[in-house]
Amino acid sequence: MRARFEPVATEGAARTGRVRTAHGIFDTPCFMPVGTRGAVKHLSSVDLSELGAQVVLANTYHLMLRPGAETVAALGGLHGFTGFDGHLLTDSGGFQIFSLDPKVDDDGAVFTSTYDGGEHRLTPESAVDTQALIGADIQMVLDVCSALPATTSTLATAVDRTADWAVRARRHFLDHLDAPRRQSLFGIAQGGTDIELRKRSAEATVATGFDGYAIGGLSVGEGRDDMLPAITACTDIFPADQPRYFMGLGDPVGIVESVARGVDMFDCVLPTRLARHGTLLTSGGRVNLRRAEYAADDEPLDAGFPASPANRWSKGYLRHLLQVGEPTAARICTLHNVAWLLDLMARTRTAIAAGTFADLRADVHRIWS
Fold first, then answer.
1. pLDDT tens across 93-109, in order?
2. Is there a contact between 341 and 31 (Cβ–Cβ < 8 Å)?
3. Within this chain, do residues 138 and 255 fall inside the same structural domain, yes or no?
4. Domain of 226?
5. Residues with active-site annotation
6. Angle between helices 195-208 and 224-235 (to 10 degrees)
7. pLDDT tens-digit profile of 279-291?
8. Which among 82, 43, 50 has a CA at the least distance from the CA of 331?
């Protein structure tokens, strides 16, 4: 089903609204916690619902290897398998595959399983088939994600191959008897930080015609000054009545700057990975609870965020749990970081609707830059 963006308010290029899919509606701008193998580490689907997550991401690459797409389908599809009632999006696995140095040709990619060393081949068509079996509400096309920095020639090859694969994926998706009715398929623009290649990729992706549009291959180590123009090159071309998704972005400044350029959806492992190592996102900036200064701190984690699930415990107690390797620490810190980032998105939506997004953007820069 063609995902539709229904605007509520705008402030400059920033926009808040609702995305409508076959599964229902979710509000934007939104952050999608990453549940790579069908779960966000240390959290359950009940946690995610209670925190207010409207969309959660899972990864095709991992699920196709363990437990297998057929098993997920047999256990009720991704919704039944995970017990999550909100929207679910599956990444095609392109980023993970290309980080494994696969053998790539015009037909697809051959890669080695991180689980048992077995060899697997993924094509644009098989990525569609696998995600149709898994049963997410939004599936992503298989694309070619180049590491940065990269030569213009390397980026151009990735753009051209991504465009060819996109056409094949879209055609195959539409040939499915059921998938187009119950799922949306998003295309992905590549091109690194090369503005002309970004425009070329975005134009080709839009010309193919997808249910939503994503920006891939950024936030992989390049500077923000290079990243932001590449975002604009895409959002200037993406249709205004369909959702726009920045893949793999989770830092607060990057998020608000992308929202200011018209992006609607974000995902990243950053908040959960930081949490597991004792680094918290707070209203005053990053807090590393492993620092000795917090050993006897009896203050709550984030008094500026009263809704934090971690505020019933002191910083000193949470640091103690981290120091002794108590798994409870990772869970509490993960609950907080996910809640904090979801709250940032809620405040962003409210600010755009109220015409005060510029103020929120300035506050985020003041605290996080």
1. 777 666 777 888 999 98
2. yes
3. yes
4. 4-268
5. 91, 267
6. 30
7. 999 999 999 999 9
8. 43
How many domains does the structure of the chain reveal?
Answer: 2
Same domain? 156 vs 194: yes
Same domain, 336 and 232: no
pLDDT for 178 equals 87
Structural domain includes residue 366: no
State pTM to two decimals. Answer: 0.97
pLDDT recorded at residue 202: 98
Identify whether residues 173 and 25 lie together within a single domain: yes
Count other Cβ atoms within 10 Å, centred on residue 74.
13
Alpha carbons 94 and 109: distance in angstroms, whole number: 9
User: By the 8 A CB rule, do 260 and 14 touch?
Assistant: yes
Q: Give residue 97's pLDDT.
A: 66
Axis-axis angle for helices 327-354, 357-368 (nearest 10): 140
